[in-house]
Design goal:
Layout (H helix, E strand, L loop, with lengths): L5 H4 L5 H14 L5 E2 L11 H12 L12 H15 L8 E4 L2 H12 L5 E6 L4 H8 L3 E6 L10 H7 L4 E7 L11 H12 L5 E5 L15 H4 L7 E6 L12 E4 L2 H12 L7 H12 L3 H22 L14 E2 L20 H12 L1 E2 L1 E2 L9 E4 L4 H16 L3
Parallel strand pairs: 1-10, 3-4, 3-5, 5-6, 6-7
Antiparallel strand pairs: 2-8, 7-8, 9-12, 11-12
Helix pairs in contact: 3-11, 4-11, 5-6, 5-10, 7-8, 12-14
Length: 400
């Protein structure tokens, strides 16, 4: 009898975490490494939020809470959805989990049966397909490309839906590409979904507040209210408020689904950290200037990185519309040989040789379902990004 489960054999570890860990190990051994693999703002959590957490500790708010969120936080989330997204939820339609990842996983575990398909646009966040597999479903893909801004069309979506499709996962702005759908582009997709009443929509809005050049944000249930009864709108405080380590994600959706997700959570982690929940209340209800200030910094860094990468031979880097990632193509580097003799047969070989030879950690495109590319997170200092672009250019200039 095998000890490990067959389900576990279907999935692989997160590539972003694996590369980040390797970069840390290289740093610990004395190597000069610039890690651009983790999707984590380099800013500190705002002081008002930290003080709210300290108050919660001092007031003894350190006990178990309701499984899927304290009432104060659920109400704050309802108010946030109404204020920023035009979505109307009651607290019974809200769930809070230990990060957005748990919320997504709970939804999939609560709904998927063997044979159910989950449609995922590529490039995609590395965890989507493996979470589907762990939940017993089958991930299927519809591919965007650089020519379409890494977005999919209504025609592609229509063609990809099958009688087995249970969920469509939508992520805008996108991790890894930074692609952000306009309201009109999103309306074209929701028009397709209206014709398929058995397909549910899982909208991952985690990068909602990181939208550049004056663009306005829109989410599927907002653009097409008729989809609200089969849409789970997921968000969190990690990216918008630099609270990655606090681990708070949340979602709004139909009460039947929310209750099913709470049942899953009650038998896995139970409640998220009580202290983190009170901090999240302050994040959602307190001063919001941090978001505006950080957005300006990220847009400047985006422009710096795009210009730096487009100066590298063999790399083409489009300008993303949101998030804090770029997803350049390395098609012009494939088939060449690095200065240390490594044949660049694919984007994984490119990323590996770049890390070994120049000490720059990026995530190869195959991990996100679209090659030949790599992802850079520019959620780090201007100085580190400038130096990283210089090293990447040296690496590319050394290819022959």
């Amino acid at each position: 009898m095998a000890f490990l489960s067959d389900t576990l054999a279907r999935v692989k570890p997160s590539s972003t975490i694996a590369i980040s860990n390797k970069a840390r190990e290289m740093k610990a051994s004395g190597r000069d490494v610039i890690a651009l693999s983790a999707g984590e703002p380099d800013f500190d959590t705002p002081d008002t939020i930290k003080r709210a957490a300290i108050r919660a500790i001092e007031e003894g708010k350190t006990k178990y809470t309701a499984v899927d969120g304290i009432p104060e936080l659920k109400q704050a989330i309802c108010d946030k959805f109404a204020r920023e997204n035009g979505l109307s939820y009651t607290p019974s339609q809200i769930t809070v989990g230990t990060g957005g990842k748990q919320v997504l996983y709970n939804a999939l575990v609560a709904t998927l049966n063997p044979g159910d398909e989950v449609l995922i646009p590529a490039p995609y966040w590395v965890s989507y397909p493996d979470m589907v597999l762990l939940a017993g479903g089958t991930p299927t893909f519809v591919e965007g490309n650089m020519q379409t801004g890494y977005k999919i069309s209504a025609e592609q979506l229509e063609a990809a839906i099958t009688p087995k499709t249970k969920w469509f996962i939508f992520n805008s702005p996108s991790n890894p590409s930074g692609a952000a759908y306009s309201r009109d582009e999103l309306k074209a997709l929701t028009d397709v979904l209206l014709r398929h009443p058995d397909v549910w929509v899982l909208s991952d809005d985690m990068y909602e507040h990181l939208l550049f050049d004056g663009r306005e944000y829109a989410t599927p249930a907002q653009v097409e209210p008729a989809l609200a009864s089969r849409t789970l709108t997921v968000n969190g405080v990690s990216k918008a408020y630099a609270m990655t380590g606090w681990r708070i994600g949340y979602a709004g959706g139909p009460e039947t689904l929310i209750k099913a997700m709470a049942k899953v959570q009650s038998q896995s982690t139970s409640n998220p950290s009580s202290i983190s929940q009170y901090a999240a209340v302050e994040a959602l209800t307190g001063p919001q200037d941090y978001i505006h200030d950080s957005l300006a910094v990220f847009q400047r860094r985006r422009d710096l990185v795009v210009a730096g990468l487009n100066a590298c031979p063999g790399i083409t880097c489009p300008t993303p519309e949101g998030a804090f990632y770029v997803y350049p193509s390395v098609a012009g580097c494939i088939g060449k040989t690095s200065a240390s003799g490594v044949k660049i047969v694919n984007d994984e070989a490119f990323a590996s040789a770049l890390l070994e030879e120049q000490g720059v950690a990026v995530v190869f495109g195959a991990a996100f379902g679209l090659s030949p590319n790599f992802r850079i997170s520019y959620a780090t200092s201007d100085a580190a990004l400038t130096e990283a672009c210089r090293r990447i250019r040296l690496f590319c200039e050394g290819l022959n």
